[in-house]
Amino acid sequence: MDAQALGRLLALLGISLAIVGGMLWMGGRLGLGSLPGNLHFSGQGWSCFVPITLSILLSIVLTIVLNLVLRFFSR
Prior knowledge:
The chain contains two helices and two strands. By secondary structure, it is of the alpha+beta class. It has one domain (3-73). The chain has a two-stranded antiparallel ribbon. A hairpin with a 2-residue loop joins strand 1 and strand 2. The longest helix is centred in the N-terminal third of the chain and has 28 residues, at 3-30. It starts with a helix and ends with a helix.
């Protein structure tokens, strides 16, 4: 791997990390933790949160991002 390809990879990883960080930051403000389909169980002295809808949404977004990255590097 030459320096140009390594620089492109590092720039892409940095941009991706900034985008994911921004999405998490805005997701907290938009209420992504309380989507319909997320389960929250609690009892006396315990609680359990199962983010089913958030997991599906995150899976779709990450699949799209991964496909774009792979297309970018296959050129």
